[in-house]
Structures are given as structure tokens and as C-alpha cells.
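Model the whole thing, not chain by chain.
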Amino acid sequence: MRMSQFFLPVIKETPAEAQIVSHRLMLRAGMIRQSSAGIYSWLPLGFRVLKKIEQIVREEQDAAGAQELLMPTIQPADLWRESGRYDDYGKEMLRITDRHERDMLYGPTNEELITDIFRNSIRSYRQLPRNLYHIQWKFRDEVRPRFGIMRGREFLMKDNYSFDLDIAGSRRSYNKMFVAYLRTFERMGLKAIPMEADTGPIGGDMSHEFIILADTGESEVYCHADYLDFAAPDQAVDYDGDLTPIIDHWTSRYAATDEKHDAARFEAEVPEDRRIVTRGIEVGHIFYFGTKYSEAMGATVTGPDGGDIAVEMGSYGIGVSRLVGGIIEASHDADGIIWPASVAPFQVGLINLKVGDAACDGAATDLYARLQAAGVDVLLDDTEERPGSKFATMDLIGLPWQLIVGPRGLKAGTVELKARRGGERREVSLDAAVAELAAG
Amino acid sequence: MRMSQFFLPVIKETPAEAQIVSHRLMLRAGMIRQSSAGIYSWLPLGFRVLKKIEQIVREEQDAAGAQELLMPTIQPADLWRESGRYDDYGKEMLRITDRHERDMLYGPTNEELITDIFRNSIRSYRQLPRNLYHIQWKFRDEVRPRFGIMRGREFLMKDNYSFDLDIAGSRRSYNKMFVAYLRTFERMGLKAIPMEADTGPIGGDMSHEFIILADTGESEVYCHADYLDFAAPDQAVDYDGDLTPIIDHWTSRYAATDEKHDAARFEAEVPEDRRIVTRGIEVGHIFYFGTKYSEAMGATVTGPDGGDIAVEMGSYGIGVSRLVGGIIEASHDADGIIWPASVAPFQVGLINLKVGDAACDGAATDLYARLQAAGVDVLLDDTEERPGSKFATMDLIGLPWQLIVGPRGLKAGTVELKARRGGERREVSLDAAVAELAAG
């Protein structure tokens, strides 16, 4: 992509309304624009990151045996009356009346709708287990939306729902998601720590939040420093095998949010020099809630002995749009964002320092074509901005690599290759630059 | 994917509520389920088709130089008051009041929101032209939703918006979309004919609908039979070159919907044996509307002479979810759907006729693994249904190829390869089957 043609409205000034760094940087980098309180448009740069994150979530869900479908955003109130949550949910639910005066709502989550689909389609225990997910926009009418897309009203969430015949099966489904979540966040360059959680309005009696550590997090967290060195399960993990050892390992140390924190246990279990007390951002949440919805809504299957059995259910959420902010909170410096390669909107920012200079234009165009041919996503800065402004913009938008083409280097046959993370710079030949970037 | 694990709730009976064939077949094939009037969930089989169509639309937009972003579903009413459309739109607009009593709405289209993004970001004529698109769910509160997802309330649409400095530039943007649309529909196996159209509530003075011919279409159409033989532009089309010859060719014959039909002209211009009078389904619509929104909302750029110029705009829509139904209307038979390969949910249905028979299980598993390794999307019917039921389901869901593994053929070293379209069947060796299907 040529920057001269790319819709990238960067902002030089720091926006006054943004209180946290991810919000500031997303506005400044031209990733998002607010259209009303807590509701944002994703401009091309932000959209590319959102899609990368969505795709990682999808791949790990598929690998764990979940199947993708798509439920609508607007749901009938009657389904929520069946579960009893229509009244419980309060003002965070965006309630809507359609032209025929029917009560509708913009889904904040989908337990009712998926249970309805299940009960209309699945009849026999032989059709279990099932794990269905979708990646869809949700709405929660926050009283005070803030922190940009971190606590917005319209947000993109991956949510899935498991259906099992018995508690043991449900536990296996829960474990699969636990492992898939560890892998998902790890692929995004995040260290997400599972912490026991309250189940809140979803209900149920087993639940973990996946929390990334960041000073700007919404809640205080307490955990053992060992977690920082734990390795996520490998891609080759066998989801049909016994996942218990992985779960045991990842729950073997103390880790708790404010809500569940037990100061005495923390001090007893964690040596003083291994205690981490900081703030955290919730990026995922998994629940087992048994038959809460299946009983209320009649989601039963015929069991082996012919009787009706209410299915055991769990639900599992990942805040896809929130992760964009979470990754920035965890990975930035004073100059801007530092994208992990797996979610970067482009891999390389190719800077032509002297547009109009025949040698620079020729080399930049040549590198651009060769990198694209090698399958590398490149953003070519072919604008007429001053070098200082070009460097600042490229640091701000945080692509993993910068490749800088200037007249002085070209005379020596070199370009400058800069790693955004760490800032290391090297003079390399054009061929070496292409070879290194093409190798990933 | 193994059918025993795939969430595919096919229905044997013909659903009484479905009046047209695409609605019937989508329900029977387990592609969609209604959650309330005109609002559907996309089950895994339907979701896969929806994504394939979305991706073709995306690729052709990108090729034509449009850039993807994503606007939210919920919009502030104030923007629509600026354009004057808040009152005009009537009851088809889903109006919402949030917890702070602010007037919001579920976007039926996005002219106002994109114009707001534009005016906050683009200042100079040097930053033109721009063409921005998104693929997002829309809502129109139809008084009588029907025909399944063909005339639903919540639907997926690709809409984009062009911004140019002058009318000549706007015409070039319009022509690019005209060409991109021809290519998009052609890739889906559709013959879409551009017909002059009224501009309706969007406003403007140049507009074409892209219509596919089908007996079940919503409006009567009249056109010259020559269109059926016109070839869509090639992939190598140069979007920066002169597209006028393509537009001229594709508008050289008579083609009109009811609204614009002129019986005298039709009879004068089209020889009697070349007159097509049938019904049509609108799958795309492009508009040029000049400065209607830019003037009302102050979307101006500084021109070459320093003065403010209201930008020339156009908008362009493709009904992504509607296309799923449109393709079925255009491509089915008495037994079910016949997917064009480009949008098929899987390329091959691999039927194991005798599950439990060692030879059949072995051959089916082997073929399944080899086809997957070759990158072919395969649905393996490993269920214990009777052969007749397996054939009926596979015909119903309409995958391009069926590969049938049975004990009799295996004794002779062969499997049966059946083309869903046309129904041709051949006995081939296992190796030949893999080679042929892997070659596409």
C-alpha cells in the first residue's frame, strides 16, 4: 500500500479526551474515530489489526474443535424472558421497540439465542458434544463509556457455547477452551494469566478470567511471578487427549483479581519477592454454568435410556475489539505503538526519504515491488513530508520493521533496516533487506 | 469436516412458511434459522457460503482501489438530522433511544457517517480521490419481511462511498465500481445485468441496478438477450485506464426494470426474438449523487486555488447476505442447491456408503486425508444413515462434487465421482479421483 493513497488520518496533537495510552495512540495513529459516546468507526489501519486478531481467534477456536456460525445482533425479548434475564439485565441492555411494537434488544451476549438454536436442532445425546462460536458485534449501554474501544458500547466479541451430556464432558469442553485461550493470547504476544473469577450475571460455578498485566488495567490483580515464565501449550496440543496437566500447571500458582483476592492466602503461598501486585485488563472469560439455561429453556436431549436430559453448558468470551487496545497497553513506548508481528497492520514501513530524487524513487519502488512479490505486507511512505515527520509517523503506527531509503545510503549501496521494538538499526544491502524481511 | 461432528441440522420436510425456493432450500439444508421475523442466524453451512461471497466482494473492491474500514451499526440521529434524512426515512429506520435518552438508530446505510469521517479527516484536494467501503450488518424494519434472507430485516451489505474533486473524477469512480461489480457477480457464477435505475431516497442523477434474472425475482425486467452472452471484464482490467468502452458495451442494449421500462423503446430497439421479459433480483446498486451530502454536511476540501469545494460523491452497494439466496434462486434443481465452486461451502462431499465396513472406512479415511492434504475442502459423510438418505442430503446441500465410496466399487478398485451440476457419474480409481479433485 502506498501511503499517498492510504486513508491514514494521523493526528499530531494528543487528543484531550483520551485518558489512557491505547486510546490516545489509536486516535493519533488514525486507527479509529468516535461517532458517538463509546461507539467507534475502525479506519483502515485499525481495521487491519482487528481482522488479524479476529483471524487468530478463529484459527484457535477451529483447532480446538469449535464450529463457527453467526447469530444476528438484534434479538427478540421473549427469549430473554424465558431465561429470566430480560428484567435482570438492567440498563446496560439496549432495548428496542420495532415498528410492530415488539420488544427487541441488541444482544449483549448470546446464551439465550444459542440455546434456542440448540433446542430446535439437536435431539439425541449421540449428537453431543457441540461447541459453537460466533464473532459478532455486541452492545452494552455503559453508563459512562471510556478508554476508547476498551470500554466502548458497541464492541466485537467472540463468544462460544458448549453443550455436553454430563458434567465430565462439560469439564472437557471447558478445558479445551482454557487451552485454546492460552494459545490465542500467546500468539498475539500477550502474557494472559488465568484467574479464578466470579460468574456474575451469566451464572454458574466455575469460571476463569484471562488477564493481561498493565498499569492502566481496570482492576487490581495479585499473582505469582512464576506465571510470567510459563509457556503456552504448543500448536501440536492434542485437544482430544487429557488436558488436565495443562490446566493444573496454569492454576498451580496464586492469581486473583480484586473480587476474589485473599490477602492471607497470597502472603502464605507466594514468597515476598515473587509477589506481583499491579493492574490487569480482562481479555477473555470462560464459564461453566451447567443447566441454568437448558433447564429454563427446555434444551434437552434424549439420553441413552430414552429419558430427557437437560444439557450441561458453558460459555466462553474473548473481547476481540478490546484486544486491540489491550495489546497497545502492553506494547508501546513514548513514540507510539509497537505491534507484535502477528497482529501488525503491515509488516514493513518502507520510507522513501527523498521523494522526487531519481535514485531514491527507483530504489523504493524496486524494494516495494520485491517485498510485495515475496508476500510481505508493505506500507510505502511515498509522501512529500519531511524526514522527521515520516520517522515520527512510522514510529507512531508501530510496524515491526522500518526500511529507510535515503540518498546517502544508496551511494554506498545500502538502506537502513530498523526494528521498531528495541530500535536497533543496521545498514544493509538492498538484497539483504529483501531476503531478511521475506524470511519473516 | 466430518459430518458426524458438523452442526448441519437438515430438515426432511418442506417448511410451510417458505414461499420461494431459496428460502425453502436454506432452511432444509440447515443453512439458516429464523430467530424473529426477518432476522436469521447463519448456521455453519450457511456461514461458510456467506464468508466466501464476502471475500469475493472484498477482493474485487480492493482490486478496484477501494479501501476497507468498518463503521458501527448504531449511529447517532443527529448526523441524519444534518442531511435531512432522519425524518424522511420513515418507519423502515429502526429508531433507538439509549439510557441517556439520546436518539440513535441502527444504520440502514452509511452516507451520513462516512461523510462525517471524511469531513473530519480530509482537508485538501490533493488527498482525493478516495473510495472507502465496509461490509457490515444493516437493519431495515420492513413492514412485511419475507422470502427468508432475501428480504430480511437484518442483512449484510457491502457499501462504499467515493469522494472526488469534480464530476469527471466522480464518473471515473462510478465506472470503476461498475466494472468491479460485473467482475464480482461473474465470479459467483451469476449473470448480472446493469439496468438504469431510479435513485430513490439516496438521491442523485446517475444510477444502475445490477439484476440477476430469476422467475422468483421481486420485479419485472425487460432486456435484450445479447446480455446473456456478454463477457465480464477480465481480471487484468486496468482500473486506472479508460473504462468507458466497457461501460458503453454493457449499456449498449436495452435493459430496464419495471420502474424505468418504456414499452415503445423496448419494441423499437430489440428484435422480437431477442426480447427477454422475466423477473429479476437486485444484487447491487450504484449511485452518483454529487454534492447532496457534502453540501448539507460541510464536507469540503481546499481546492487548487485555495477555495472550499464540496466534494462529489457516489455510493455503491452489494447485498452480501441477499446474494446467498440470489445464487440459489439462479442455481438449483428439484433435489436441492447447486453451488458454483467459487462460493461452495465445501468442494467435495465424500460419502462412505457403508460405515463399519473395514474396506469402506479405510478408503474413505484415506481419501479424506489425501484431499485435505491437497487443500481441498471436504465434507465426509461418516454417519450411519442409509445410502438413500446420504444421497438426498448431499444433493440438497449442493456441493460441486460427490465422491462415493461403496463396497462394490472398492472391489474393482474404484469410487464414483459425481458432478452435482448435470449429474454426470464416472467410476474412477482412488488416485484419479484425488488427482482430479485436487486440480480443481
